[in-house]
Design brief:
11 helices; transmembrane; sensory transduction; 324 residues
Amino acid sequence: MPSEIRGRRMTWGNWTIVSEFVLVSFSALSSELQALLFLLFLTIYLVTLMGNVLIILVTTADSSLQSPMYFFLRNLSFLEIGFNLVIVPKMLGTLIIQGTTISFLGCATQMYFFFFFGAAECCLLATMAYDRYVAICDPLRYPVIMGHRACAQLATASWFSGFPVATVQTTWIFSFPFCGPNRVNHFFCDSPPVIALVCADTSLFELEALTATVLFILLPFLLILGSYVRILSTIFRMPSAEGKRKAFSTCSSHLLVVSLFYSTAILTYFRPRSSNSPESKKLLSLSYTVVTPMLNPIIYSLRNSEVKAALRRVIRRTLDPQKL
């Protein structure tokens, strides 16, 4: 049994076993600025939840939004809600209470679902790019290729792709000994700041983590890039200006979402360590964990005429149900 308990750590011989972590978050900022950030992030959080729930409801209720594109958009909104629920509530807590702690199990759970939702979103964005590729480059066979069964299989595969990376990464990290400091220099339990607290050789894990990052971030990105090269090639060969405009309009929202998500993710996880300070990593992490999930429903609703029309119909039915 442990020889003694001292505060929040247990000692075993010469080893100190960390039982909980302290999230440093934005504690270097003044309390006034942290209060402003709390209000800002709380507003963004509520807008994110309402926007994504609205996308789910509209694409489910409106009969004109039952195509594969909106089926995948609905899945993306579910992912964004999950991503936000994992990260933002705890981050808001760190802005209210200095030295907010998270238990060892809580940290592992947060990291697991962060990996899960992140990997699933990368694969789902690649699936959505494939859907646009088939719709524009092979429109005659689109109903056959992207039937209900194929869409369900692609969506399921995207969701389940998060399990292996989340299970392997999280289990491996939390099997290491944590025997020293317990301050995680981040606003959530991301792998780099947590692995920095490990008191063992982590070189093999870091090689595996790089491999997983390439497979679940870079590979889907290359598939998306390849899809859009073919899409743009097809669009530019279209004889009709109206046809080009419609084709661009169906892709622009997804392309903008992909650009926002991948630009910050690649900058975060592929930058050299020498140029990747903890503070800059926090700012980049805010982009894809807080800002992008809020922008996705706004982008899809404002840049998509079908979604805007469906929103108007839903609002009219809600305000005047007698016209149903």
